[in-house]
Amino acid sequence: MLQANVLLDKPLTSVIKDVIKHVFTHMKEDNAATSHAVLVIEPIEPPAAILSAGTSARFAYQEFFQASIENPHTRRAYRHAVDCLLDWCRKRDVALPQVSPWLIGEYLGGLRDRCGEPLSKPSRKLHLAALRHFFDHLVLRHAVSLNPAASVRGPRHSVVEGRTPALSVAQVRQLLAKIDVQTLVGLRDRAIIGVLIYTAVRVGAIAKLRRRDFFTDGRQWLFRFDEKGGKERIIPARHDLEGFVREYLTAAEDAPPATPLFVSLRRGGTALPHAPVHPGDILRMVKRRLRRCGLPADSLSCHSFRATTITNLLEQGVPLEDVQHLAGHADPRTTRLYDRRRREVTRNIVERIAI
Fold first, then answer.
1. pLDDT 10s digits, 311-344
2. Residues 187-232 pLDDT 10s
3. Where would I find the beta strands (DSSP E) of the chain?
């Protein structure tokens, strides 16, 4: 039992650690008989600039990165941006309450990439967004009085077409035809690439699929995707994609509905039923398959299939709002960024120059 008088004599962050350990210790004891693994979550250690700013700043930092941001990718990117600024301030002997809008502007203007070149505009906008959210949280917890990033203007960046290259229909067909489906690895890889092509979902949503997420309603087979931003989306499986996935599941070992749909494989091709493929594993697989077909693996990625599918549907005259719904975009302008038809128009125009 935790004694109240003991807790009152400790700093707030120490109390948080003690409470977390106390709760999880009892959970371990309760679950010992069932052999369930219990994950003990330790509060992250803030950088020196936060530690020197007092208990409120330390609590706000830990709360912001461990309780306020659900998406792990966003959490990682925001923490990198915040820690970079705090380290920059530490080297200049700038305390947290002394951070001002002009200091943040100077910091953003001096950001460089690994090659020493100025950081791209989208990356600087991401840094600024992270700082605005972080200082908002510090204000909320009374660690600072004002948000110094709120009035800082980010770089203007307008995009009419995304940079992700798309594949042609012939290249996609070549890629699928080249896969050896006499092995479990081939069946799995064809099914994964099929989902990328015929649903236009992001690779992260595919990696999170469970067996229960591929199901039938009595009329057709469907996928249930856990998409970006916590959105759950149901997308029908077209006939050939249904065949790809069912052939893969027939060759794979039987497993409970909660196990991953696409699993990692041992070197000999044996499935690891409880080890899901990671998005990075899928990217490496796609690159490997592209190279075997003689396609430009360095420039193409999993996201290229998304651009390919969206462009193909728009070329066929499918209404933009229908394509937007398939892609899961809240704004049709985002869907237009994936449309590669403009590149074809530009190429046709320059070829007609009669010189």
1. 888 888 888 888 888 888 888 887 787 776 666 5
2. 999 999 999 999 999 999 999 999 999 999 999 999 999 987 778 8
3. 214-216, 221-226, 232-236, 263-265, 271-276
Region of poorest pLDDT, from 1-5, 28-32, 309-313, 339-343: 28-32
* Centroid of chain to Cα 342: 28
Q: How confident is the model at residue 24 (pLDDT cuts 50, 70, 90)?
A: very low
- Relative to beta strand 271-276, strand 232-236 is unpaired
| Chain centroid, CA 213 distance in Å | 20
Three-state SS sequence of 97-125: HHCCHHHHHHHHHCCECCCCCECCHHHHH
H-helix segments, 180-266: 184-199, 203-207, 239-251
pLDDT, tens digit, for every residue of 114-127? 888 888 888 999 99
Residue 267: CA count within 13 A, CB half-sphere: 0
Q: Are 282 and 206 in contact (CB under 8 A)?
A: yes
Do residues 96 and 89 lie in contact, with contact meaning Cβ atoms separated by under 8 Å? yes
Pairing of strands 271-276, 263-265: antiparallel
Q: What angle do CA 291, 296, 301 make, to 5 degrees?
A: 90
Q: How far apart are CA 148 and CA 128, in angstroms?
A: 11
CA dihedral 256, 258, 260, 266 (to 10 degrees): -40
Residue 1, pLDDT above cutoff 60: no
Q: Name 192's Cβ contacts closer than 8 Å, sequence gap at least 6.
A: 206, 262, 277, 282, 285
Among 84, 103, 154, which residue's Cα sits nearest to residue 124? 154
Amino acid 260 reads P
Q: What is the pTM of this model?
A: 0.67
